[in-house]
Amino acid sequence: MHWRTPMVDLTILTTRQALFLVALNTLLHEIGVxxxxxxxxxxxxxxxxxxxxxxxxxxxxxxxGTLAGNSVWFAAGRxxxxxxxxxxxxxxxxxxxxxxxxxxxxxxxxxxxxxxxRFIPGVSLLAPPLAGxxxxxxxxxxxxxxxxxxxxxxxxxxxxxxxxxxxxTVIQALAVFGRQALAAVILLIATYIGWRWWxxxxxxxxxxxxxxxxxxxxxxxxxxxxxxxxxxxxxxxLADPRRILNAVAIEPKAIEDGHxxxxxxxxxxxxxxxxxxxxxxxxxxxxxxxxxxRARLLLGGLEAxxxxxxxxxxxxxxxxxxxxxxxx
Length: 328
Hints:
With 328 residues, this protein is of the alpha/beta class. It folds into two domains: 15-202, no CATH class; 207-326, Rhodanese-like domain (Oxidized Rhodanese, domain 1, 3-Layer(aba) Sandwich). Helices cover 59% and strands 8% of the residues. It has 15 helices and nine strands. α14 links the parallel β6 (268-271) and β7 (295-298). α4 packs antiparallel against α7 (123-133). It is elongated and about 75 Å long. The termini are far apart.
């Protein structure tokens, strides 16, 4: 005879408790508190199969929580512009790439990034302030944010309902193993954070290639004519139109794809607005691999330059042609 352990009942919360938990978790997640949201919604969605909260009420709760959290950062983006993005990236687990990833999504999908970005880690947090910095209207933002939250809620709640039995089995296994399961979860989290830390350290491998804003200003004043390259994405330059005086705006992809030929007999100083000069470091790595031995990064990027009070001027149209051309 085969004995079967009774399946765990996932309906451990009342409807009111379940909706409150989802609303609170969604709000905290959307304002940047590092609390995972997907597991909560999956489990509560699974519980709806056996008499828990109504699935449509769950999706509506996700929408309300998302709008509340996103509106905070959208308003901050409208008021403080790119400074809001920099603040959020500093508190992110992946600060070196979060700005670049969000700018890239806006470049590919435009305003629909607010909808699509719900499914991309990091973008969902950065998209609202970036939209605010770019001047999106409140009505359009609310409509797109609600649509993205509804789509995400439908997918996750629906997945939880479909995987009801499997999720119950997982919870049952965790309950049986107890401390061992908790230790495994802690180990996974520690491994993830350690991997992120290692990636951040690895991204600083070009430390010897960085120049300070004072060193760059001295090069310019001595008449050595360094080529200063703004490698921010077009979206970032629209959100913050400042640039270093006489800098050339070039899309990183244009350099990486070989569409831009830069001079090899001049210092090339690359800058961006990412933590740890992430975008500039990526482009510098490409140039160094191609033999541009004088390619360097500006420590602190555009923010350090402007904080030092050095001259800036309006942004020029970025180079975005697909044909190869050179810059003297």
